[in-house]
Amino acid sequence: MKYLKLVKQPAATKTQPAAKPEPAPAPAEGAGAVVADIQQTPPAPVAPQGVPVKISSDRMTYDEKKQVVSFVGNVVALHEGLTLKADQVSAFFVAGDKRFDVQGIDRIVANGNVHAEKGKTSGECGKLTYLVAKRLLIMEQDPVLRDGPNSITGEKIRFYARENRSEVVGGDGKRVEAEFFAPKGLEVQ
Question: Which sequence spans correspond to the domains of the chain?
Answer without folding.
Answer: 54-179
